[in-house]
Amino acid sequence: MWYRFWYPFAVRILVDYRPALRERTGVGEYVHELVRALGTGTGSGDPVTLFTNSWKDRPSATLASDLPSARIVDAKVPVRALVWAWNRMEWPPVEWFAGPHDVVHSQSPMLIPSPAARVVTIHDLDFLRHPDHMSAEIRRDYPRLARSHASRADAIMVSSHYAQGEVTRELGVTPSRVHVCPPGRPHWSAEVAARQAVRRGTHILFMGTLNLRKNVGTLLEAYARLRAQVPDAPKLILAGHPTAASARWQARANEPPLAGHVEITGYVHPGRKIELFANARMLVLPSYEEGFGLPVLEAMACGVPVVVSSRGSLPEVAGGAAEPIDPDDAEAMAAKMRALLDDRTADAAAQRGLLQASQYSWAACAAAARRAYASAMEVHAHRG
Q1: Residue 89: is its pLDDT beyond 60?
Q2: Is residue 261 within 8 Å of 235, Cβ to Cβ?
Q3: Mean pLDDT in residue range 203-232
Q4: Widest distance between CA atoms in the chain
Q5: Do 285 and 207 meet the contact criterion of CB atoms below 8 Å apart?
Q6: What is the distance between the alpha carbons of residues 36 and 33, in angstroms, rounded to a whole number?
Q7: What CATH number does domain 2-184+361-383 carry, 3.40.50.360, 3.50.50.60, 3.40.50.2000, 3.40.50.300?
Q8: What are the DSSP E strand ranges found in 139-268?
């Protein structure tokens, strides 16, 4: 790697693995696969430490075999206590638990206390726009502290050019410190794509946490209109964690004309997710805001046609695979879904998606992350 010119020694990297400790939703999947990619390919001689902490939750028994190149540091410290101390007091340094490192990479906008070069990942800024939708910890700390932490970070990683522009503008960060590190297509997608090529899916899929920005209400309205036009349309599966906001959607799904045609799964484990994509007729993600939209990439890589909104990063991620729609236009959404029930239209959309997904890889993500780490060390050195 080019950064060896500046840093000929092995770079000791600590990565915050806490978002993937219990359930690998979008951010958890990102950090897990990033660490996997950091352990392979060019430059993989750099030692990577995974840091996690909890009083009761321990890393998976298979984590060491899943990520064999990484060292795992599992601190038996209450999550809330450490988060409060780190966010509010910026103490104690992570070195107390994990020893010295050259780069410390947080998976949130909050810096991890350390004398090393510090990197944060900011996937989106929904915590600034809608703090009332956030968890208590995020609502308490992120809106007040994010700008200060971003200004002191030696590098900031984002997953899309859209997010790069948002972070630069909203947090007042110098553009050169914001590095775009998009995720890669899943390693299991080729197998699923082969299955998709020989059979038609049995359901329409939504994948993601059921919070307000995902715009599930409009999706349900569009699906009701689709069923009015196509009574034998495939069922709709809402795959993701419920939230306080999703109770209204559950109630609506249990009433005519949707009753019996909508399934809400709750959190989806990786194996179940693969099956859902393998049997999906299409993926619909009508979000008001996404920093990336990993389910769209996963669907495209699996040969599943996608319907996306015109907001956030989704037009960037989908590229030529889909024509984005206004997320408030239920009629247009229903029309897009109806069009993709035609086999010829769906096949053409699937091919466009496969081409678009081929541009994303975890190897490229890891290479971009290493460039961000090198930049962080240089900035850190200049700051003294």
Answers
A1: yes
A2: yes
A3: 96
A4: 67
A5: yes
A6: 5
A7: 3.40.50.2000
A8: 155-158, 178-180, 203-207, 235-239, 262-266
Strands (DSSP E) contained in the chain are 13-16, 48-53, 70-75, 103-106, 117-121, 155-158, 178-180, 203-207, 235-239, 262-266, 280-285, 306-308
The CATH fold assigned to 189-357 is Rossmann fold (3.40.50)
10 Å Cβ neighbour count for 9? 8
Please give the DSSP secondary-structure letter assigned to residue 253.
H
Burial (CB < 10 A; 0-12, 13-18, 19+), residue 317, is buried
The token pair at 211 is 């919070």
Residue 128 exposure: Cα atoms within 13 Å on the Cβ side: 15
Strand partners of residue 119: 105, 155
Mean pLDDT, the chain, integer: 93
d(CA 321, CA 357): 9
Confidence grade of residue 2 (pLDDT, cut at 50, 70, 90): very low
- Record the tokens describing residue 329, joined without a space: 């236009």
pLDDT at 44: 64
* Pair 277, 337: CB distance under 8 Å: no
> Dihedral of the CA atoms 236, 242, 246, 249 (nearest 10)?
20
